[in-house]
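Many introductory courses stop at the sequence. We go one step further.
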Amino acid sequence: MEWSFKSAEELVVALRAGAVTSVELTDEAIARIERDDEVVNAICVPDFDRARAAAHDADQTLARGEDRPLLGVPVTVKESYDIAGLPTTWGMPAHRNYLPAEDAVQVARLKDAGAVVLGKTNVPSGLQGIQSFNEVYGTTTNPWERGRTAGGSSGGSAAALACGFGALSIGSDIAGSLRTPAHFCGVYAHKPTLGLVANRGMVAPDAPAFPVDLDLAVVGPMARTARDLTLLLDVMAGPDPLTLGVAYDLTLPPARHERLSDFRVLVLEEHPLIPTGSAVRAGVNRVAAALVDSGARVERHSPLLPDLTEAGTLYMQLLISGSRARFPIESYELLRARAAALSADDQSLDATRQRAMVFSHHDWLEANNGREVHRHGWRQLFAEFDAVLCPITPTPAFPHDHRPNLLERRIEIDGVEYPDLDQLVWAGLATMPGLPATAIPTGRSPEGLPVGAQLIGPMFEDRTPLRLAELLEQKIGGFQAPE
């Protein structure tokens, strides 16, 4: 039997029943990587010797009658996570030889759960952008069409899952970096509620792996089934043992409902700041039709929905000002001059980004206050709805675009070009207020490319969009292996 495309849940059952060994699963995964990854380039840092040793240990543990949630299951890890003994470069040549001494907290949790780590997956340089290419490891291609991107910044992880290189992966998300690659590659991903999952050790090379609270950014699970997302989130979730974990234990509330017919879902397919491509709109509407067919309450409009234009603006302000804080100080005066030259009437997202690059602390606090107003609005909306269904990006995977300047890249939506970064407003809808969002496959574009959508849920009620994703997988289907 071929095991490479089985779910992690199925592998756990088979391992416990003695139908397969972890060594067999690991050898099969490694053989597939060695056969198929030369073109896809998803696994940038293989760790096969240690994986085989870990698989052998897992089999011995199983033979003793012991059990752990992921015991013996082959997985991958995004390159940006520290793994002791392996390079963490973030795709930046200056850090090619950086070797962290300790595992990231999430890598440690994977290993404690018994997972077998096959290696690391590719990322964009500095984790910047929604493609995965860099000077250290090269370009990750989309398993469905090599001329297109697998997404970013967790593109290597999404491509690895689509190719059967391990049953699970872990990534990160600040601008759709979990959800967009899942959408482009036809797999599942979950952006947890901000602060739900400890992030220590998912840190830029040479930076100390302190347990810091990041703004906007989260780490989270990727898989080929919705149930596997929940399985992996249960391993990952919880506070850092060095800080909040000293005092707090985690108890996530259960999903609000167990049947599709009981869910109340608000469906959004259009954004005032960027059009939605026809293929993505069709995917959203396919899911909406399945909800209606199952008896769910589906609405297309609600006065409780926070203003989408304001939400997109606030997200760009917080995202860009936070990123800009790490730029060289000598570039500040030039950026300030450019922002000052903008017309006061220019309220485009590009102008918003340029102004955010020179935000003062006062400016940031104003944007943060706006975020709190939106969070309150979402709390009110989720008293009436259980989830919001909407796009992740406006299009399926697009052709590789390696122009060095992110601001010069363009995205084509049904034949019309727009600034590449404008498409982030859909991802930012959940990111800005810190809400959980689950990426699900919704079908194929007319060209045969995967198309996905996201289910946004109430803060810290991550099990609600995850359960809805599971029920929809049963209704409309889920992952399909590339042909």
